[in-house]
Amino acid sequence: MATRAQPRRWSGGRQGGVSIDVDRARAVAGRLLGGDRWAHVRGVARRAAELAATVPENDRGLLVCAAWLHDVGYAEPLRDSGFHPLDGARRLERDGWPPRLVGLVAHHSGASLVAAVLGLDDELARYPREDGPVADALTHTDQTTGPTGRRVSVPDRLAEVLERHGPGSPNALAHPVRAPRLLAVADRVERRLARLATAGVTGPEHW
Ligand SMILES: [Fe+2]
Fold first, then answer.
1. What is the whole-number distance in angstroms between the Cα of residue 204 and the centre of ligand 1?
2. How many CB atoms lie within 10 A of CB 9?
């Protein structure tokens, strides 16, 4: 039987000589975010723990940290460009978080495609963008967690974002390119989960 995943499971280890501290990430996000946004982020961190088996063991703490921190750019004190992946990345970089974590936050959930609509793509491109299981898992956690932390499907999440931001919004303008990319991410993560299930890995108790 699968065990409920716990986002605090990993101490996080080190990335590029800088320590990855899951407890610190959760505390930072909890200080900056409230209401539904905090409920969403807690749901994303839980989901990240569920998907952690899809990434290399050494990257699981990084994934959960990035899940806690991915939306801090929405916090009013961090507001600068008004584009939350960029504002979050700027603050995390200033606070000394590892470049890889900063890059994951900067580019989560197809942010570069929305940044292009906003004319912020050069700014965002300052941060390293990685492709692979960790970036996929972070995006998929966000895309399968609704605005109040409930588990949702990727198509429902995309529809909710379109409705919330409205027609003509940067999200709506990026949607024709962004939606297929997010669905491709979902497909890759689901295939990794299926391979793990075939191998008998069904939950955190097996990791
Ligand atoms: Fe999010």
1. 23
2. 14
Find the 177 Cα to ligand 1 centroid distance in Å. Answer: 19
3-class DSSP state for residue 45?
helix
Report DSSP letters for 100-145, one per residue.
HHHHHHHTGGGHHHHHHHHT-HHHHTTS----SHHHHHHHHHHHTB
Q: How far is CA 35 from the centre of its chain?
A: 18
127: pLDDT confidence band, cut at 50, 70 and 90? Answer: very high
CA of 105 to the centre of ligand 1 (A): 10
**Token digits for 26?**
């959760």
Helix (H, G, I), strand (E, B) or coil at 68: helix
E strand map for 129-188: none
Mean pLDDT of all residues belonging to the chain: 90
Quick: pLDDT tens for 50-77. 999 999 989 999 999 999 999 999 999 9
